[in-house]
Write a structure and sequence with these properties.
The complex is a heterodimer of chains A (300) and B (351).
Chain A lengths: L3 E12 L2 E13 L4 E5 L6 H8 L7 E6 L2 E2 L7 H7 E4 L13 H12 L4 H14 L16 H13 L5 E5 L7 H18 L2 E6 L2 H7 L2 E6 L2 E7 H6 L4 H10 L36 E5 L2 E4 L4
Parallel strand pairs in A: 3-8, 3-9, 6-7, 7-8
Antiparallel strand pairs in A: 1-2, 1-4, 4-5, 9-10, 10-12, 11-12
Helix pairs in contact in A: 3-4, 3-5, 5-6
Chain B lengths: L2 H6 L2 H18 L1 H4 L20 E3 L5 E6 L2 E5 L5 E5 L5 E2 L1 E11 L3 E9 L17 H37 L1 H16 L2 H10 L7 H31 L3 H8 L4 H9 L4 H24 L11 H4 L6 H6 L5 H24 L7
Antiparallel strand pairs in B: 1-2, 2-5, 3-4, 6-7
The chains are: A alpha/beta (300), B mainly alpha (351).
């Protein structure tokens, strides 16, 4: 059984200019002790999915199961979600209360679950800081006195402090420089091995995803277009959008308009797709072309 | 570096802060510092000018401070012209016995800081009934200095909590609260105050009036603050640290009070210091119009009733002393407010 099962999640936002189909029937599963990556361009609904899993948005329809238990409505299973699913955000500078020192931030996180006094918890907090590569000298620093990389480490420490099962990494490296980003990724890999964590890694950078992911889901404007094992996606990409993303990493991509899908029906990628035909107006079937490798396209 | 160390860097603000501290100590211990009771009148000294205290005798030798007693004659407009009898010396005594009072409401005593055994001492002159303006100023400061603090405490806790709830939860709660706030803001404040005050019996006890003024002023005051706080909360709650706090399972109450509202402090600290003068002036204005604290009780507002005529001000300018006190107090709060704004901004803490 998968650790987290996302079944046909839909979330639409009503806007003055029409409906934004942020999530349009997303099916996903997050495997235990592995990294599941979700790749897609900005605005395609990756962060919306993360916030829906955490219960910040209530989905219009669909189900989210954690180890078989329904957590779609967070209110019913609040404790289960909070204990087991944590998140690391994209922008480390906004992820911390500017009035809290590193110590206060971590203590607040511990206190949310257990009732321990500040003195008892101190050694534990030092340990948790050390585990993400921060020394004790960071204990009483405020967020504005730390660099982006240090803050992102602190953010990871905060997410891991209550020993969750799943950590959602919402583009954790995209606002960091490349050397810091690699360090953070190494740290994440190390922590995963130590604590047997499952990562849900959201990114738009396929090169970084290649380093860390075991499973890759490719998303385009509210829909999953292709998913499979990392080797399958990188070795034999079948959906034209996946190919385009991989080309983009090599700067080989052609220009295309960065507009979202306006269609509820049919393939979301058909306006940009070079192989687009009339048949693309119909909903593409999910096709299994290899074991574990699924593509939503009419031409596979 | 903590807040206090930062605050201390601004000399003016520290001076004003100390001045306020002195004023508050004077207000709390008014019985001890005031030579006369607030209602201790003496018709023979009506409109007496401030007393000059002498430290040197005729031979320019330092002796214990003394004053000369007043005599007066009337001029052609029947106005008293005071002069002093230079050859009579009345020594100013410290820790003298005067009227009985309860210090801090606990110890019954009759010791006062200073006073004279015969004659009268008027540090800031006397009013129309020969009451000591200095003593009345001290007693009046109890009303004027506390009304701001209590009023602000009520209206700001209301405004922050209601504004915080409104902004954080959004939806129909937000809509409902904001419509209520708009209705309260629609009321023209001062006239509403007058109308409400007028609807209560005029012979009310001064203590009741005091509480009533606080309640009315706070009731008007929280609305505009709630609106600003709600706007700030709307922007703060979209920050990722709020989502992180929610993901950790903190309660809504804790998120609002510990993570969102503290981030409005830089605004609130300024707003508090800037609105305390509003309460002081609001009370003074009511009392000035005879609707606030009633005679014989003293407040800075009803002491200023004397200065309603330009002729009085011209003849007895010391009746403006409460006005100067109001000016100093409100200015102090404003300056402290501006300094606090700088101190509370966490991004300025670089040094």
């Amino acid at each position: 059984m998968d650790l987290l099962d996302i079944q046909n999640i839909k979330k639409y936002f009503k806007q003055p200019w029409g409906i934004n189909y942020a999530l349009d029937g997303v099916d996903m599963s997050i495997k235990e002790k592995a990294t599941t990556a979700l790749v897609g361009e900005s605005g395609c609904g990756k962060t919306t999915l993360a916030k829906t899993i955490l219960g910040f948005y209530r989905p219009d329809s669909g189900k989210i199961l954690f180890k078989g238990e329904d957590i779609t409505d967070v209110k019913t299973n609040n404790k289960l979600v909070r204990e087991n699913i944590q998140i690391v955000f994209q922008n480390p500078f906004l992820s911390f209360n500017p009035r809290y020192t590193a110590f206060a931030t971590l203590y607040e996180a511990v206190r949310a679950m257990n009732n321990i006094s500040k003195k008892e918890v101190r050694g534990f907090l030092v340990e948790s800081l050390n585990s993400v590569g921060l020394g004790e000298e960071f204990f009483f620093r405020y967020p504005h006195q730390m660099s982006g990389g240090e803050l992102q480490r602190l953010s990871i420490a905060r997410a891991l402090i209550n020993k969750p099962k799943i950590v959602i990494l919402d583009e954790p490296t995209s606002s960091l420089d490349i050397s810091t980003a690699v360090n953070i990724l190494k740290l994440l890999a190390k922590l995963q091995q130590e604590a047997l964590l499952s990562y849900f890694f959201i990114s738009h950078n396929l090169k970084l995803v290649k380093r860390i992911a075991h499973y890759v889901f490719v998303m385009y404007y509210g829909k999953i277009v292709e998913y499979g094992l990392k080797e399958q996606i990188y070795g034999f990409p079948r959906h034209p959008y996946t190919k385009l993303l991989l080309d983009a990493c090599e700067y080989k991509m052609k220009d295309y308009p960065a507009s979202g899908s306006k269609h509820k029906q049919g393939c979301v990628f058909r306006e940009i797709c070079p192989h687009s035909k009339d048949i693309c107006g119909n909903e593409p079937e999910k096709t299994e072309i290899e074991p574990n490798h699924f593509v939503f396209c009419h031409f596979v | 570096m903590n807040f206090w160390q930062q605050f201390k860097r601004n000399r003016l603000a520290v001076t004003m802060f100390r001045l306020l501290l002195v004023l508050y100590v004077l207000a709390i211990l008014a019985d001890f510092f005031a030579p006369y009771h607030y209602d201790d009148d003496d018709v023979m000294h009506a409109w007496a000018p401030p007393t000059r205290i002498h430290f040197l005798d005729i031979k320019q030798k330092v002796i214990t401070p003394y004053i000369n007693p007043y005599t007066f004659s009337t001029n052609e407009y029947y106005r008293r012209i005071y002069s002093v009898e230079k050859n009579v010396l009345i020594p100013v005594r410290f820790f003298v016995k005067g009227f009985k009072y309860n210090l801090l409401g606990i110890w019954s005593t009759d010791i006062h800081l200073f006073g004279v055994e015969n004659g009268r001492i008027y540090l800031l002159g006397a009013d129309d009934r020969g009451r000591d303006i200095f003593s009345r100023l001290l007693y009046g400061s109890r009303v004027s200095l506390s009304i701001g603090l209590i009023g602000v405490a009520i209206s700001f806790s209301l405004g922050m909590i209601i504004g915080g709830i409104s902004g954080y939860f959004g939806g129909w709660i937000d809509t409902f609260i904001m419509r209520v706030v708009e209705m309260i803001m629609l009321l023209p404040g001062f006239y509403f105050l007058l109308a409400l005050r007028a609807s209560f019996p005029p012979e009310m006890d001064s203590r009741q009036v005091y509480l009533l003024i606080i309640v009315i002023l706070s009731f008007i005051g929280w609305a505009s603050l709630a609106r600003v706080i709600r706007g700030m909360v709307l922007s703060i709650k979209e920050n990722e640290f709020v989502f992180a706090a929610r993901a950790l399972g903190l309660t809504h109450f804790r998120i609002i009070t510990r993570h969102i509202l503290p981030n409005t402090f830089s605004y609130v600290s300024v707003a508090i210091c800037l609105s305390i003068p509003g309460y002081i002036i609001g009370e003074a204005a009511l009392s000035f119009l005879g609707l606030g604290i009633q005679e014989p009780y003293a407040s800075w507002g009803n002491m200023l009733v004397l200065s309603q005529g330009i002729v009085t001000i011209e003849a007895y300018p010391w009746v403006l002393a409460p006005g100067v006190a109001i000016l100093i107090t409100t200015m102090s709060f404003n300056i402290i407010g501006n300094t606090l704004r700088d101190v509370f901004d966490p991004k300025r803490k670089i040094l």
